[in-house]
């Protein structure tokens, strides 16, 4: 393999580039990213960076003296992939021909249809988004957050800390029910009320009002929420449009095997855009968490370099964290198949507890609120149990 | 030399946090070695004593950067700077720590708080 092209220059792309070098690949390495910035960290964009407690330099994912001997193409958007010649086409007319390709184009924030061009309406995914939102938050006023998921909740928490009057609108009856289940979703989202942030559930948004700038959010039940600023946090869609027609199988992102291999030889996909097969559950899962984008590229790079000869290992149960209102929330595993959830330590009322999700008596997921030490131990146990096939088959 | 705890009270795989400023943690590895490093992760305000000890490394309980207990070096982001290591002495079953005189690599949020600024 003489040339490897990594498409997407964020956490998953950088992690893949690092793994390539670490695993001894010494050929040409081209990293293509459509943003103008060097790789930066996204989690602080809804937290410390948004609040102003962290500067742009602190977001850098590379260390000062790091040199991967790579050609970095910034501001370069991939528009296509030719399977015959394994060539990545760029929007500016250039192209990069490679023997191996790592797809790491991540995901983009979903927008509300029909809100284009209305000032005061934000989504949050990129550094540029965060800069724009931070500047407007500094002016204060009434913020309506559409979507009570993790990013919406974190923005609400940060904005509340900056003195804004905040309302969160969630279409589902319980926020976070998808990742955490109904019971724990309502426990975690109770943090809003603890801090005087209004949470409206089970009501959809009909539209926004305003001529050039938003002035209110119109709800489906007829209510109107006056707003100086709106943040839309309704999830993200994988950035895989550029792969349409390339022969790379797409299904909720790039459809991958258990080690990131795609339907094309010599092409792997990692991070938020990649829908990896989970051999334990027997289904594909697109995991959109920081730790997955940081750890999984190494397995994909191993598969790429070995030409697929390496047996994929079992995946670690996915882990993510969230910081809201000064509370550290941590979660590992999958709540979907659980038939029970029990609090094993502390108490939800104190916003400090650990809960274990079980299926047929076996732990499948763990949630911690301000329980770092205990959570870490459970996370370790769960990883050991899941990567041991006999137990996980239960 | 600061006394930390008795070796007998620190089982393998466990950590003991010395609440000095900045805090230092003593780790007893599964191989029976004892190391002391700064307790605060260099990325953000997390206590490494709450982390995941494996071999001669501790994984931060928040965002999973790993620190080498022997050198303080960090393996991968989000943390970018090493933690300080401190000399350890075990005498009469008691673990003592000699704090390093180097400047600590405190995370931005903690550093600004210590400097009297807003966290
Ligand atoms: C505000 C925010 C807060 C978050 N907080 C947390 C948290 O607390 N905990 C947690 O676990 N996770 C969190 N996450 C999720 C985490 O940041 C992501 O899982 C991670 O960034 C995924 O990395 P990635 O490299 O796969 O994708 P991305 O970070 O999305 O990077 C993909 C890159 O590819 C580029 N790209 C896209 N299309 C093209 C193209 N055609 N050509 C070239 N380049 C392209 C994009 O511009 C982008 O730079 C958060 C995310 C956001 C946005
Ligand atoms: S606080 Fe340790 S890695 Fe982030």
From TrEMBL, chain A:
<dbReference type="Pfam" id="PF14759">
    <property type="entry name" value="Reductase_C"/>
</dbReference>
<dbReference type="InterPro" id="IPR016156">
    <property type="entry name" value="FAD/NAD-linked_Rdtase_dimer_sf"/>
</dbReference>
<dbReference type="Pfam" id="PF07992">
    <property type="entry name" value="Pyr_redox_2"/>
</dbReference>
<dbReference type="GO" id="GO:0008860">
    <property type="term" value="F:ferredoxin-NAD+ reductase activity"/>
</dbReference>
<dbReference type="InterPro" id="IPR023753">
    <property type="entry name" value="FAD/NAD-binding_dom"/>
</dbReference>
<dbReference type="InterPro" id="IPR036188">
    <property type="entry name" value="FAD/NAD-bd_sf"/>
</dbReference>
<keyword id="KW-0560">Oxidoreductase</keyword>
<keyword id="KW-0285">Flavoprotein</keyword>
<dbReference type="GO" id="GO:0051213">
    <property type="term" value="F:dioxygenase activity"/>
</dbReference>
<keyword id="KW-0223">Dioxygenase</keyword>
<keyword id="KW-0274">FAD</keyword>
<dbReference type="InterPro" id="IPR050446">
    <property type="entry name" value="FAD-oxidoreductase/Apoptosis"/>
</dbReference>
<protein>
    <submittedName>
        <fullName>Benzene 1,2-dioxygenase system ferredoxin--NAD(+) reductase subunit</fullName>
        <ecNumber>1.18.1.3</ecNumber>
    </submittedName>
</protein>
<dbReference type="GO" id="GO:0005737">
    <property type="term" value="C:cytoplasm"/>
</dbReference>
<dbReference type="InterPro" id="IPR028202">
    <property type="entry name" value="Reductase_C"/>
</dbReference>
<dbReference type="GO" id="GO:0016651">
    <property type="term" value="F:oxidoreductase activity, acting on NAD(P)H"/>
</dbReference>
<feature type="domain" description="FAD/NAD(P)-binding">
    <location>
        <begin position="3"/>
        <end position="294"/>
    </location>
</feature>
<feature type="domain" description="Reductase C-terminal">
    <location>
        <begin position="319"/>
        <end position="390"/>
    </location>
</feature>
UniProtKB/TrEMBL annotation, chain B:
<keyword id="KW-0223">Dioxygenase</keyword>
<dbReference type="GO" id="GO:0004497">
    <property type="term" value="F:monooxygenase activity"/>
</dbReference>
<keyword id="KW-0560">Oxidoreductase</keyword>
<keyword id="KW-0001">2Fe-2S</keyword>
<dbReference type="GO" id="GO:0051213">
    <property type="term" value="F:dioxygenase activity"/>
</dbReference>
<feature type="domain" description="Rieske">
    <location>
        <begin position="2"/>
        <end position="97"/>
    </location>
</feature>
<dbReference type="Pfam" id="PF00355">
    <property type="entry name" value="Rieske"/>
</dbReference>
<keyword id="KW-0408">Iron</keyword>
<keyword id="KW-0411">Iron-sulfur</keyword>
<protein>
    <submittedName>
        <fullName>3-phenylpropionate/cinnamic acid dioxygenase ferredoxin subunit</fullName>
    </submittedName>
</protein>
<dbReference type="InterPro" id="IPR017941">
    <property type="entry name" value="Rieske_2Fe-2S"/>
</dbReference>
<keyword id="KW-0479">Metal-binding</keyword>
<dbReference type="InterPro" id="IPR036922">
    <property type="entry name" value="Rieske_2Fe-2S_sf"/>
</dbReference>
<dbReference type="GO" id="GO:0051537">
    <property type="term" value="F:2 iron, 2 sulfur cluster binding"/>
</dbReference>
<dbReference type="GO" id="GO:0016705">
    <property type="term" value="F:oxidoreductase activity, acting on paired donors, with incorporation or reduction of molecular oxygen"/>
</dbReference>
<dbReference type="GO" id="GO:0046872">
    <property type="term" value="F:metal ion binding"/>
</dbReference>
């Amino acid at each position: 393999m003489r040339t490897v092209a990594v498409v997407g220059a964020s956490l998953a792309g950088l992690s893949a580039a690092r793994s390539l070098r670490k695993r001894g690949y010494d050929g040409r390495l081209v990293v293509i990213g459509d943003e103008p910035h060097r790789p930066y960290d996204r989690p602080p964009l809804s937290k410390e960076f948004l609040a102003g407690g962290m500067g742009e330099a602190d977001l850098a994912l590379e260390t000062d003296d790091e040199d991967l001997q790579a050609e970095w193409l910034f501001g370069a958007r991939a528009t296509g992939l030719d399977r015959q010649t394994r060539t990545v086409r760029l929007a500016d007319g250039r192209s990069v021909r490679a023997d191996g390709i790592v797809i790491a184009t991540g995901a983009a924030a979903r927008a509300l249809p029909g809100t284009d061009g209305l000032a005061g309406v934000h989504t949050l995914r990129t550094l540029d988004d965060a800069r724009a939102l931070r500047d407007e938050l500094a002016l204060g006023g009434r913020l309506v957050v559409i979507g009570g998921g993790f990013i919406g909740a974190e923005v609400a928490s940060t904005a509340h800390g900056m003195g804004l009057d905040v309302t969160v609108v969630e279409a589902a009856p319980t926020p976070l029910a998808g990742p955490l289940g109904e019971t724990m979703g309502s426990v975690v989202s109770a943090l809003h009320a603890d801090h005087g942030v209004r949470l409206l559930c089970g009501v959809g948004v009909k539209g926004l009002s305003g001529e050039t700038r938003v002035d209110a959010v119109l709800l489906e039940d007829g209510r109107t929420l006056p707003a100086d600023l709106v943040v839309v946090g309704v999830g993200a869609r994988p950035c895989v449009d550029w792969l349409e027609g390339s022969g790379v199988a797409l299904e909720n992102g790039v459809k991958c095997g258990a080690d990131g291999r795609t339907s094309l030889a010599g092409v792997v996909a990692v991070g938020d855009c990649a829908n990896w097969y989970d051999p334990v559950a027997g289904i594909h899962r697109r995991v959109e968490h920081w730790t997955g984008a940081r750890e999984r590229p190494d397995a994909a790079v191993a598969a790429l370099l070995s030409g697929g000869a390496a047996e994929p290992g079992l995946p670690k149960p996915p882990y993510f964290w969230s910081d809201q209102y000064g509370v550290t929330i941590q979660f590992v595993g999958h709540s979907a198949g659980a038939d029970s959830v029990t609090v094993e330590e502390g108490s939800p009322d104190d916003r400090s507890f650990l809960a274990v999700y079980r299926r047929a008596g076996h732990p499948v997921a763990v949630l911690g609120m301000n329980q770092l030490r205990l959570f870490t131990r459970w996370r370790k146990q769960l990883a050991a149990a899941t990567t041991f096939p006999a137990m996980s088959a239960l | 030399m600061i006394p930390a705890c008795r070796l007998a009270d620190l089982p393998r795989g466990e950590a003991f946090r010395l609440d000095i400023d900045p805090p230092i943690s003593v780790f007893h590895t599964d191989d029976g070695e004892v190391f002391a490093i700064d307790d605060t992760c260099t990325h953000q305000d997390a206590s490494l004593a709450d982390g995941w000890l494996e071999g001669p490394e501790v994984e931060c309980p928040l965002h999973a950067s790993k620190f080498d207990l022997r050198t303080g070096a960090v393996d991968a982001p989000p943390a970018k700077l090493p933690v300080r290591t401190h000399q350890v002495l075990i005498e009469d079953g008691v673990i003592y720590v000699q704090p390093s005189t180097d400047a600590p690599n405190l995370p931005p949020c903690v550093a600004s708080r210590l400097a009297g600024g807003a966290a």
